[in-house]
Write a structure and sequence with these properties.
With 117 residues, the protein is an all-beta fold. It is 0% helix and 54% strand. The chain is built from no helices and eleven strands. Strands 2, 4, 5, 6, 9, 10 and 11 form a seven-stranded mixed β-sheet that branches. A hairpin with a 4-residue loop joins strand 7 and strand 8. It is globular and about 45 Å long.
Amino acid sequence: QVQLVESGGGLVEPGGTLRLSCVASGTVFSGNVMAWYRQAPGKQRELVAIITTSSVTNYADSVKGRFTISRDNAKNTIFLQMNSLKREDTAVYYCYAFVTSSGRPYWGQGTQVTVSS
């Protein structure tokens, strides 16, 4: 059973930083495409950043230059470094894995990020 567990969310002031982590278990982590999504109240879930098995990355335009996704295959973990946070970054952030061996997607339970003064 694949499990994804996020951590690192919280309350931060505008301009601040947070680092999210997602630990995966029950899967050959290095073979999975991993991503971060977010969902703000009243809005659809949106892709924030994605990282391939060869660590190629892509970002939503709204976070380019501020957020960085990375992976540590030895620790079965991905990270999302979020700098220069804005109020509009407030959302529940979800870890996502596409397990290539099974062709199935998996989601974490989400972690709340609130940007407010």
